[in-house]
Write a structure and sequence with these properties.
The protein has 423 residues and is α/β, with parallel strands linked by helices. 24% of the residues lie in helices and 24% in strands. It contains ten helices and 22 strands.
């Protein structure tokens, strides 16, 4: 069984693996979000594993195997190895930058475009794929200027190309782990030991999808349980009954994306209606889709299966009634949690949920935050550390929309200029 991503374009990568492999899913997801054409060859028997992938059996630890267009073969590759093979992995070219941006979602990409185009020596650091959560979206239809919609991966690729044309450096497969800030300079330490020194920084790391909090949840990740819209998996859900959990736009878009492929799509929400949480155009399309159903006031309370997900337990919030449903596909889009533990370590103010507090929200009864060293109020989008800004979903009080994130990224650069000029 072979499935192709990339709108018919010749694949740059062929992936040989078995369904239910978390590593294989991570590779498919990364390539899809990076807009790299690939072909997925699903192996179902030991004979197929031997004849097609050149390994001993279906459970061979060398799976998945990636074969690139030039014939290069990499067994069970890491995302960093794939990034290196694609020629995307690079080392910083400067010892110091004007602006370091962490996170390459819409806010970070926007900041990179505006920072580099306005003459700032700019570096953008991303732990995974370009685009962030928006990059996983099958279609963004309410973004200004794209009346027919655009996939998240395509929008991210266009923004990446634009940022690079203006001279921004992009470091992929790099994760920031901690930071140090002193007068007029900050140092970010990446997981591989690289140091990024910059006069100003923007945190645009967004949020990670929240987990269900169920026993054995990690066991099924990539083996029937997926976080996010799962756009890379649509072709694999043919004639299957899939479940999407969540009442926001990302969940609604996911349900509609799977509908042409899956036999049945069940959208599971905790509330009584989609109308309170979903854009009206999506509500209308969901109710018009013949194979999409909405299960209101319902929770997922159990995951079952020996090696991969085979069954889930659904519980009605009002009646307490429980029932089981067979499925190999569960996509979770239930809001996010910011990864900002590093901020606590350096004294940056966060709210109770971990989001970075910025600008006027830092003032209490007109008083600046404790340890604020400057004789001015924090700039809008500036955190409690001068010269460190936040934009997009990671920021307290942000509007969780792609266009808002893009606007905040551009706005943050304007305040970076002011900070660099006046402190």
């Amino acid at each position: 069984m072979a499935e192709r991503s990339g709108n018919g374009t010749s694949p740059l990568v062929k992936i040989y693996g078995r369904l239910g492999s978390a590593t294989a899913y991570a590779i498919r997801d990364f390539l899809h979000r990076s807009d790299v054409p690939f072909e997925w060859i699903q192996l179902a028997t030991d004979e197929q594993a031997r004849s097609q992938a050149g390994v001993d059996h279906l459970q061979d630890s060398r799976l998945p195997v990636c074969v690139f267009a030039d014939g290069t073969r990499i067994e069970c590759p890491t995302l960093r190895q794939i990034t290196e093979k694609l020629g995307w992995f690079r080392t910083p070219s400067h010892s110091e930058y004007d602006l370091a941006i962490y996170g390459a979602g819409p806010a970070g990409l926007s900041a990179a475009v505006y920072g580099a185009s306005e003459g700032l020596k700019t570096v953008l650091i991303e732990r995974s794929a370009i685009g962030g959560q928006a990059g996983t979206s099958s279609k963004i239809e309410n973004y200004l200027g794209f009346p027919a919609g655009i996939t998240g991966a395509e929008l991210a690729e266009r923004a990446r190309e634009q940022a690079c044309r203006f001279g921004a450096e992009i470091l992929l497969a790099r994760e920031g782990v901690r930071g140090e800030f002193s007068a007029g300079k900050g140092t970010g330490y990446l997981a591989d030991g690289t140091k990024i020194v910059a006069r100003a920084a923007i945190c645009a790391t967004g949020v990670a999808y929240r987990r269900l909090g169920l026993p054995d949840e990690e066991k099924y990740f990539g083996a029937g349980l997926y976080y996010g819209a799962g756009a890379s998996e649509a072709l694999l859900t043919k004639n299957e009954h899939i479940f999407v959990v969540g009442g926001g736009n990302s969940a609604g878009q996911a349900a509609l994306h799977f509908a042409p492929f899956a036999k049945r799509v069940s959208l599971v929400i905790r509330g009584p209606s989609l109308k309170c949480t979903l854009s009206q155009y999506l509500v209308d399309r969901i109710f018009a889709a013949p194979n999409v159903e909405v299960l209101t006031r319902t929770d997922i309370t159990g995951l079952h299966g020996e090696h991969c997900l085979q069954e889930i337990t659904l519980k009605h919030r009002d009646t307490g009634e429980e029932r089981k449903a067979g499925t190999h596909w569960l996509f979770v889009c239930i809001g996010g949690e910011p990864h900002t533990q590093w901020a606590e370590e350096v004294g940056i103010v966060r709210d109770d949920a971990g989001y970075l507090v910025t600008g006027p929200d830092l003032l209490h009864a007109g008083q600046r935050p404790a340890n604020w060293p400057l004789d001015r109020d924090p700039y809008y989008l500036e955190t409690s550390v001068p010269g460190m800004f936040a934009a997009g979903d990671v920021r307290h009080g942000s509007v969780k929309r792609c266009a808002s994130a893009v606007g905040e990224g551009a706005m943050a650069v304007a305040f970076v200029h002011r900070y660099l000029a006046h402190g």
